[in-house]
Amino acid sequence: PELNKQSDMGPLFSSVQAETVIVVAKKYKVLVSPTILKYGPNYISPSVVELSPKDRDFLRESVFGPIVGIS
Fold this sequence. Notes:
three-stranded mixed β-sheet; alpha+beta; single chain; globular
């Protein structure tokens, strides 16, 4: 299959889930998507956050959403 250069992302399950992703992202230095955009009900922009090498809290957050942590 060919590479799809256009990608669509649907909404998160609930507004509570969207707010959880935003709260978790604000705990860390955001590397990509410096302002976490909320653009409609349950839609938020994907984010990449920076973790310290010894940070394990992010892994315990159990966040299901468009966020990833790197160290």
